[in-house]
Write a structure and sequence with these properties.
Strand order of the largest sheet: 1-69-68-67
Shape: elongated
Low-confidence stretches: 1-22, 29-46, 343-347, 550-554, 687-696
């Protein structure tokens, strides 16, 4: 192969005029075609592979409606299913979805996309003659195999099957500006108004709620007359006409927000003015009239019943729940009993809907916790308390440890696969296993020591307060030694001893230390001279610790201990425009010690959030990572870095010794990974909470034989790849970002040239 001719480029991006671009590209083409010839062909697998391991135990996105889809295939093998609808629903289990998902009792799957339907508003569902019907954003739809059929003609608020016919409450425009409001019946091809229009003495009338009571169809909403007959916001259908169903005795026109049949009575949530303030009241109708059960409900409260129990869903105030704010309360014997607490500090706190599925309450909405348990927008009330719906992880995994063919995951989860797990779980290559009774939700690190999993954190054992480090013997977790308390956030092994780092105390009276060693009998402080250590590693025979505490060099340094003395690696870390630099992740990679976090200089050398120490000095790794680096891993001889934010390109980059490149966007939002013995990278890819962009809890990634220069994915690197790269560059295609900076510049041309001649 001929030597590469020197290329001289203007020191600017290729963003000028087309003439400027052509001049630069012409030089590239001349150098490639006239001066070097084509490289030898290289076999390549162009596309990396991404596959899900375990699903999320819940629904990604806010659920506006949850309901039962009875036996979708009639007498066939399918049983009842649970349907969840919502504008923000984007997935469940391992399925990517748009607006609608379904649960068969063990696993989630996606229904045909409803994305074009949603703009906002309520949702409802019903089953009619074996088919599923829904309303979404004031439209009625029927599920026909793999597509939704729009039953156009009305603005449908709720849909209901009754007496072999399909009804919808809503409105439609007729004769120009005239609007009919009431209940409509589907005749197979179009909607027809039944029983005449609904009107109101003041304000805009509406018919929005349908239910069945004593074998009759009942409608609720805001109206004072139905086809000229006085009706106080609730009316009953006798097969021919609408008639009144008593009155609430409230001043002005009230609005019925929810209806449910309950023990021979009809319960209604009625919005009105309470002492001049908008609010809602709960009434019950038993034939002789409406009786008030309680005041001070939120106006978005919904009521539903099961046997003798009446429930109300919403953000319930203390007057209802007794204390605090709750998502669900049960009415029995004249009293409310809180059933689903929304604790202080919960990220979201809205319940929108509830249903009974397989004999248990299913609560859905926009919440991430009930009591002290974490959930993804949907939960079921089992005899032993609230549980996730599905078989996956109910919260993100924070990290992994591997030894002897088994992987231990740790994080904030309560469920892993099919088992209850508390913060730690073991994967045998096929399924997840609980590890004893688990640990407190304060685990910060796990590693193997003497072939046993060891966890670091704060008060890991509830029965042993103060345990900062605990070991699992295959049956139970126990504290390692006595007297080590505080917070351990990192673990290592040095000279055959277990090392714990963080903010620790040893003994009684307690002796503070940032790093401690376990010699098999007792814990001993290591005199690093700092009060807090973020991370530890072993490099060139010395124990290394990163700190933002009170060490020299501005308190932000990497220190090394050789068993006798402590020295600093370089002159510390700094961050432009701020005193807060955080060198809080450390890993040995090849011959280098890699430190990552958030900083702009290491030992005075400019770098972006990641730097390498070669035993003598610090250096930058290319352009670094744009956002704060939160973890490091190694995969097939490449360094993998996770940044603290995700973009369309994901938040994982890999360093191959030449430049940084993005890994697939489909595993964006990742925070930890580990390379498995079979050559796959196991990635936690759900740590970023976003209601519209969240992928699998766990993901496998492989890129066997991936050649970066095989731009056309032909399996060989040829001149055609150069032409395709240049074409992508000029059209602004993000694939031309060869150096992983997030923007396409002249630097990508240099990077492509390096990959072009680099063996795959």
């Amino acid at each position: 192969m001929k030597p590469l001719r020197p290329l001289v480029f203007d020191n600017r991006t290729l963003g000028g005029t087309m003439i400027d671009r052509c001049r630069v590209i012409r030089r590239v083409l001349v150098a490639f075609v006239a001066g070097i010839g084509a490289p030898s062909a290289a076999t390549a697998q162009c596309q990396s592979q991404v596959s899900g391991l375990n699903p999320l135990a819940g629904v990604l996105g806010e659920v506006q409606h949850v309901g039962v889809w009875p036996d979708p295939d009639g007498p066939g093998p399918l049983g009842d299913r649970l349907i969840a609808l919502g504008e923000a629903v984007r997935g469940a289990g391992t399925s990517v979805a748009q607006g609608a998902v379904v649960f068969d009792g063990s696993a989630w799957s996606a229904l045909p996309p409803l994305d074009e339907v949603w703009v906002g508003g309520k949702a409802t569902s019903t089953t009619h003659l074996g088919s599923l019907y829904i309303t979404a954003n004031s439209k009625a739809y029927r599920l026909d195999g793999a597509t939704w059929t729009h039953l156009s003609g009305i603005g449908a608020q709720e849909i209901r099957s009754f007496s072999g016919e399909l009804f919808a409450a809503g409105s439609r425009s007729v004769s120009g500006q005239q609007i009919e409001r009431g209940v409509f019946r589907w005749n197979g091809t179009s909607w027809e108004l039944v029983g005449g229009q609904f009107t109101a003495m003041s304000g805009t009338p509406s018919a929005t709620i349908l239910t069945i009571f004593n074998g009759q169809l009942v409608v609720g909403g805001r109206f004072s007359a139905c086809n000229g007959v006085p009706c106080d916001s609730v009316a009953v259908w006798n097969g021919t006409n609408w008639g009144p169903l008593g009155g609430f005795g409230l001043e002005g026109v009230s609005t019925v927000r929810s209806l449910a049949e309950w023990q021979g009575s009809l319960a209604a949530v009625v919005e009105t003015l309470i002492n001049g303030v908008p609010g809602a009241q709960l009434f019950a109708y038993s034939g002789g009239g409406w009786g008030l059960l309680t005041n001070a409900l939120p106006t978005d409260a919904k009521v539903f019943a099961n046997g003798p129990d009446l429930y109300v869903v919403g953000n319930l105030p203390p007057q209802i729940s007794g204390a605090g704010t709750y998502l669900l309360a049960r009415w029995a014997n004249g009293f409310w009993t809180p059933a689903a607490e929304d604790p202080a500090g919960s990220l979201f706190n809205r319940a929108n809907s509830a249903a009974f599925f397989n004999g248990q309450i299913v609560l859905a909405g926009r919440f991430d916790a009930i009591g002290d348990r974490r959930f993804l927008g949907i939960a079921t009330l089992a005899p032993d308390g609230w549980r996730s719906l599905g078989i996956g992880f109910d919260q993100p995994i924070r990290g992994f440890a591997e030894s002897v063919g088994q992987v231990v995951a740790w994080g904030d989860f309560r469920h892993a696969g099919l088992v209850d797990a508390h913060s730690v779980a073991r994967w045998d290559g096929t399924v997840w296993h609980a590890m004893g009774l688990g640990l407190a939700p304060t685990v910060l690190a796990v590693r193997f020591f003497e072939d046993q999993p060891v966890a670091a954190g704060t008060d890991l054992l509830g029965s042993s307060p103060g345990a900062a480090v605990a070991r699992f013997d295959g049956t139970i977790w126990t504290a390692i030694g006595t007297g080590l308390s505080g917070t351990a956030r990192a673990l290592a092994e040095f000279n055959g001893e277990l090392i714990a780092a963080g903010s620790l105390t040893i003994g009684d009276p307690p002796v503070p230390t940032a790093v401690a060693r376990w010699d098999g009998q007792a814990w001993h402080p290591i005199p690093f001279g700092i009060s807090y250590a973020y991370a530890v590693a072993v490099y060139q025979g010395r124990l290394v610790a990163t700190t933002v505490g009170d060490a020299a060099n501005g308190g932000r340094a990497v220190l090394a201990w050789d068993g006798q003395a402590v020295t600093s690696l370089g002159s510390g870390f700094a961050r432009s425009g701020s005193s807060f630099a955080y060198p809080n992740v450390v890993r040995v990679f090849g011959e280098d010690l890699i430190v990552a976090g958030i900083f702009t200089t290491a030992g005075g050398v400019p770098c972006t959030n990641i730097a390498a120490w070669n035993g003598q000095s610090w250096r930058a790794l290319g352009t670094g990572v744009a956002a704060q680096a939160i973890d490091l891993a190694e995969y097939r001889g490449r360094l993998v870095a996770f940044s603290g934010s995700s973009s369309n390109a994901g938040n994982i980059r890999q360093w191959d010794g030449v430049s940084w490149t993005y890994m697939p966007a489909s595993i964006g939002g990742a925070s930890a990974a580990i390379e498995l013995d079979d050559g796959r990278l196991l990635v936690n890819s759900s740590s970023v909470r976003s209601e519209s962009t969240r992928s699998f809890s766990l993901t496998f990634y492989t890129d066997d034989g991936l050649c970066r220069a095989d731009f056309d994915c032909s399996g060989q690197v040829t001149l055609q790849d150069l032409f395709d790269f240049l074409s992508a560059y000029f059209t602004g295609d993000g694939r031309a970002d060869m150096n992983g900076t997030g923007t396409v510049t002249v630097g990508d041309v240099f990077a492509f040239i390096e990959y072009y001649f680099k063996p795959c």
